[in-house]
Amino acid sequence: MDKVNFIYTEVGTDIILSLSFDEDTEFGIDRFILIRTPKYEFALLPHERGASINWDEEPDVIEIVKEITCISNEITFVSDIRSYQFDISKLSKDEMNELWKTVARMNFDESIKIRRQTK
Q1: From CA 40, how far away is CA 46, in angstroms rounded?
Q2: Confidence tier at 117 by pLDDT (50, 70, 90)
Q3: Cα–Cα distances in Å, from 14 out to 39, 40, 43, 111, 116?
Q4: For residues 43 and 35, what is the distance between their CA atoms, to the nearest angstrom?
């Protein structure tokens, strides 16, 4: 399971949550990005609205996040295509708070099922 080193968040026209990894990850990436742009969602088809996973390698594929589950130090993002599981044990308490604050902003319409459980 890939270990998240740190996160980056941005709230503006876009709401962005980026998870950063070491090189040579399971998915062959060094970052995992969730993005939502509420301002322009009206122009999208209903099935294209919501927080999406952004891949530079697959710009034409839209993966909408349906569920985020966090159990202890593992977080899983489930899209309409597949799921991704990461180890978040390196993240500080402040980073975890920022992660959930950003997820809450993305989930203003409750389109993402959120499950959090601590051990």
Answers
A1: 12
A2: confident
A3: 8, 9, 15, 17, 24
A4: 16
> Does an H or E element contain 95, and which?
helix 93-106
Question: Rounded distance, CA 67 to CA 117, Å?
Answer: 14
Phi-psi region of 7 (alpha: psi -120 to 50; beta: other; left: phi over 0): beta
- With tokens 């970052």, the residue in question is 31
The full DSSP string for 34-71 is: EEE-GGGGGGS-GGG-S-EEE-SS-TT--EEEEEEEEE
Q: Where are the domains of the chain?
A: 2-117
Q: pTM for the whole thing? A: 0.87
DSSP state for residue 72 in the 8-state scheme: T
pLDDT tens for 17-67 read 999 987 665 655 678 899 999 999 999 888 889 999 986 556 677 899 999
| Residues contacting residue 22 through CB under 8 Å, at least 6 positions apart | 3, 5, 30
